[in-house]
Amino acid sequence: MAFLALAGGVGGARMAHGLSMALPAEDLLIAGNIGDDFTHLGLRICPDLDTIMYTLAGLANPETGWGVRDETWNMVRAIEALGGPTWFRLGDKDLATHLERTRRLTAGEPLSGVTEALCQKLGVRHRLIPVSDTPVPTIVETSEGDMTFQDYFVKRQCEPLVTGFRFDQATASVLSAPLRGAIDNNEIDCVIICPSNPYVSIDPILAIPGMRDFLNTNVPILVISPIVGGKAIKGPAAKMMSELGVSPSVKGIARHYLGITDGIVIDIADEAYGDALRSSGMQVLVTDTVMRSDELKKSLAEETLSFARRLRG
Ligand code: FO1
């Protein structure tokens, strides 16, 4: 039974890591968010693909949730001395990824091919691919006007009030070739929406034409809530929900995915919501969803997989 995981950000990377510990490589395909991607210092930066890749490779920086652990910062110091931009910090080892990705993209390779090659070099056995091979940048609509994702997230530290999100280039995009192939060959038995930010990690994936059509087939789809006890484990999801007038709770998450998901995995802290979610037609699994350790990542993945098999059954 093969699973497609939709992932972005730290929560998505942790869940992808858990799934990679619970499944053989041939039974997992991870479609990574590309809405955060941008060009900086002339380099193509793909933060969510890199966070997932580094996490699966055991190289992720545990403090920041992005970039590489045991990093050095000589380049960024040298750029500062030259008066260059340092708001988006590129570590020296992380820089190699951006240089090599940009070199290969400039040579005409598709992003999915580059991503699989980099993963292979870093010893990542499970398949990680971008949801699309062409850019579909997330535009964050705020009370101060439209912003690129990185301006909102890094330059402004998520402080502006969000009013909406747009993925303007989605209509001109298509699913990446490996993802299109897996769908057309009926290789995917179940879709797992990882505990990622619904607005800026998952919706950009769902916006790619072909993805919603696939989700409307009879393949079971489940989501692990990124909100626990009314809060996001990491990042601005709860703040965004409140600013959009959505309850920052598992109920708000279930409503976001109404009509898409068949099941939802919620934390024990939110057990009280279980019956309301079930009466809305969702299957519900209540368990410990806070992935404090690799063991907990793996056990959450294993419980999610058996929940998925029951959904499919
Ligand atoms: N996030 C920050 O808040 N500050 C940074 O300086 C920063 C640098 C950075 C470099 C490479 C990379 O892959 C990600 C980086 N991020 C940084 C995170 C980035 O903004 C991502 O889009 C977020 O992790 C959201 O997924």
In short:
The chain is α/β, with parallel strands linked by helices and 313 residues long. Helix content is 41%, strand content 18%.
Describe the model.
The structure is a single chain. A hairpin with a 2-residue loop joins strand 11 and strand 12. Strands 5-2-1-9-10-13-14 form a seven-stranded parallel sheet, with helices on both faces. A three-stranded antiparallel sheet has the order 7-6-8. The chain has 313 residues and is of the alpha/beta class. The chain is built from 13 helices and 14 strands. The chain is globular and about 60 Å long. Helix content is 41%, strand content 18%. The site of ligand FO1 has 16 residues, from helix 2 and helix 6.
Break the fold down into its secondary structure elements and pairings.
Layout: E1 3-7, H1 9-22, E2 28-32, E3 38-40, E4 43-45, H2 47-57, H3 74-81, H4 92-106, H5 111-121, E5 127-130, E6 139-142, E7 145-148, H6 149-155, E8 162-166, H7 177-184, E9 190-193, H8 198-206, H9 211-215, E10 221-224, E11 227-228, E12 231-232, H10 237-243, H11 250-256, E13 263-267, H12 274-279, E14 283-287, H13 294-312
